[in-house]
Amino acid sequence: MKYRRIAAAVVLAALAGCALKYEEIGRLMAVQSLFSEDKITNNFSNMGAAFLTVPVSRGEGPVSELPTGSAATLPAEIDAFITDRNVTALLVLKNGQVVFEDYYQDTDANDLRISWSVAKSFLSALMGVLVDEGTIETIDAPVTQFVPSLIGSAYDGATIKDVLQMSSGVIFDEDYLKFSSDINRMGRILALGGSMDGFAEGLTETFAPAGQQWQYVSIDTHILGMVIRGATGRTIPDLLSEKIIAPLGFEAEPTYLVDGYDVAFVLGGLNITTRDYARFGQMIAQNGQWQGRQIVPADWIAASTLPSANTAPGNTGYGYQWWIPVGAAPGQFMARGIYGQYIYIDQPRNVVIVLNASDRNFRFAGVNRQNEDMFRAIAESLD
C-alpha cells in the first residue's frame, strides 16, 4: 500500500511536470507567432495567451469622468494614415474632452492593449513620485545602492539618472527583427517563466562609460524597476496601482506581463484600454494634476520631458523615459512603443493623442517622423 501511494505521487508529479512543460511550450509557440501578419492585431489585445500576467488593481473608487466634447474634423490624410499604419485605435482629447475616438480591425474600447515601450513613461512617473516622497533621495545615486546584485555587472557605476536617460553604456542588442538579439532572447526568457533579474545581472559588457553616450536599450528600464523594488520592498504593479492608476480612476483593471518570479515586465508589459492611456496622458498634460489632486510632481514632469539625454543632433530627443519630437516646442513630447503605440502630448494646446496599432512596418525609414507629423497636424487642426 505504501509503495502504491509513492508510485501514485510520482505519477502525479510527472503529470504536473508535463502539464507545466506543455504550458511553457504553448507560450513559446505563441511568442514565435506574436508578430505574424495574421495574428498580430488579435495578439496585441490578448497578451495573456503568450505570457504570464498579473492584475494591476484599479482601486475601489469610481471611474473618473472623461467627458465628450464637440466632434473634431481631423486632417484629410487621416484615413490613409489609419490604413497605412495598421491603426487599431485612435483617441484625441482637447481640453480634457474626447473630440475623436474610433476603433479598427475588429477591436473595441474594452480591449486591453499592450503598451510596449509606452510603459516606460508610466515607470518614469512612478519614479518621480518616489523621489518626491523621499523614498529615493536623488537620481544621482548609483543603481547598486538599491540593487547590490548588480555589483560587478555592466551596471556597476551607472546612476539612476544614467538609466533614466538610456545612457548606461550597456551593450544590449535591441533588434526586434533578429531572432538571436538580446531583446528577443529576453522575450523568450519571459515567456518560459525565467528570471528577468537574472538576465539583467548577467550583462557584463559596455560600449562606453555610464553617462557619456545615449543609446536606447530597453533593459535600462528593467534596471529602474529593480531600483524601485529595492528601494521600497514592493512590486511595481502594487506601487503603480497605489500611486498612479487608482488615483486616476481607470475604467478597467490593467494587467502586467511578468516573468516566472512575478517580476513585472516594466519595459513594455502593461495592458490598458485606450481610454485609460488617455487618462494618464491628460494627467501628464496637466502637469501631474487630476481632478484637483497632484499625482505626479509638476517639477518631475518638466524635468523628465526635456531633451536632456545626449542624443545626436537632428534626431528625436530623449528625457527620462519620454521622447521629444524633432522641432518640438516646449511642452510637446510623447511616450512611444514598437508597432505604433503612442501617447502624444501638446501642453500648450492641451491636446492628448493616443494611438494603438499593429504596424509591422514601424521600423521603415521615416515612419516615426511621419507619425509625429500626423500628431502635430491633428493638434494644430484643433486650434
Helices and strands in order, then pairings?
Layout: H1 2-32, H2 40-44, E1 52-55, H3 78-84, E2 87-94, E3 97-103, E4 113-114, H4 118-133, H5 160-164, H6 182-191, H7 196-201, H8 219-232, H9 236-248, E5 255-258, E6 270-272, H10 274-285, E7 289-290, E8 293-294, H11 298-304, E9 317-318, E10 323-324, E11 332-337, E12 341-346, E13 351-357, H12 367-381
Antiparallel strand pairs: 1-5, 2-3, 2-13, 4-6, 5-6, 7-8, 9-10, 11-12, 12-13
Helix pairs in contact: 4-8, 4-9
Description of the structure:
The structure is a single chain. This protein is an alpha+beta fold and 383 residues long. The protein has one domain: Beta-lactamase, CATH 3.40.710. The protein has twelve helices and 13 strands. The chain has helices at 2-32, 40-44, 78-84, 118-133, 160-164, 182-191, 196-201, 219-232, 236-248, 274-285, 298-304, 367-381, and strands at residues 52-55, 87-94, 97-103, 113-114, 255-258, 270-272, 289-290, 293-294, 317-318, 323-324, 332-337, 341-346, 351-357. Strands 3-2-13-12-11 form a five-stranded antiparallel β-sheet, sandwiched between helices. It has a four-stranded antiparallel β-sheet with strand order 1-5-6-4. Strand 2 (87-94) and strand 3 form a beta hairpin. Helix 4 (118-133) runs parallel beside helix 8 (219-232). The longest helix has 31 residues, at 2-32. It starts with a helix and ends with a helix.
